[in-house]
Amino acid sequence: MKVVSTSSHAMFGAPCWVSLMTRDLRAAESFYGAVFGWEFRPTKLGEEFSVAFHDGAPVAGIGALAPRLAVAVAWTPYFAVDDADVAAARIRERSATVAVGPLRFGTGRAALASDREGAVFGIWEGRVIPDWSVGKGGAPAWLELRTRNAFDAAIFYAEVLEWAGERPGCCEVSYEDDHVVLSHAGVTVARLVGGAVEAAPDPQVRPRWHVHFRVPDVDKAVETAVRLGGTPASAPHPSEDGRCATLRDPDGGLFTVADGQ
Q1: What does the radius of gyration of the chain's CA atoms come to, in whole angstroms?
Q2: Phi-psi category of 117—alpha, beta or left, where left has phi over 0 and alpha has psi -120 to 50?
Q3: Which residues are bridge partners to 74 per DSSP?
Q4: Does pTM top 0.90 for this prediction?
Q5: Pairing state between β 74-80 and 120-126
Q6: 29-82 pLDDT, tens digit each
Q7: Beta strands 15-22 and 254-259: pairing type?
Q8: N or C, fewer C-beta in 10 Å, the chain?
Q9: Looking at domain 8-259, what is its CATH homologous superfamily?
Q10: CB–CB of 79/37 below 8 Å?
Q11: Pairing of strands 57-64, 237-239
Q12: Extents of the domains making up the chain
């Protein structure tokens, strides 16, 4: 596995974690453990949070939503920042929303936000997990933002997260066809894809960050997920990176399985 960085200061603006907030933590562990072969370990944050591991490497976090919170179950990417307060101010200045935080959370500070089109993401100030990575190659996950206008979205995130700057360690942005490609240290870590999503009836294609998890067999992963109560949001189909399929877990969390180990 390629490691992006062991320090948030050397990787600011890059994806540094993905997490799921769900209604039933134990049920989620059972579901994702069966679909992906993940094992779960408790964290210092208490019984309501756990970290998923695959082949001994951390993959994702899962936490239990407080019953009083009327928010959707969802997978969320987090991006490393030097200063959560500064990043939160930039988000608000650009007519986007900071829903929660920044708050002290374990070894750092986090905030949950949404961009101007409603796609939810998080920011993280603090130490990051050193052997986690996202992107191409052997990384367990990769990210895709599906939004109305990829170029407008790229400008927003570049201003908030300091993409395409001159500081060492920042993310690079390139344009391929109608897509915006985000890279860090030569590794593609995310893709921003535009389209006419405002008229789409299915919420899977409304503006949102999609987390793709690599599996050795897409069809088997889909079969297992459906057997355990998951719901297909799209059938297995070709993509730029092989075959993939989008699913909802039994609690409504949307995720994608894609070719790869």
Answers
A1: 17
A2: alpha
A3: 21
A4: no
A5: parallel
A6: 999 999 999 999 988 777 788 999 988 888 999 998 766 656 678 999 999 999
A7: unpaired
A8: C
A9: 2,3-Dihydroxybiphenyl 1,2-Dioxygenase, domain 1 (3.10.180.10)
A10: no
A11: unpaired
A12: 8-259
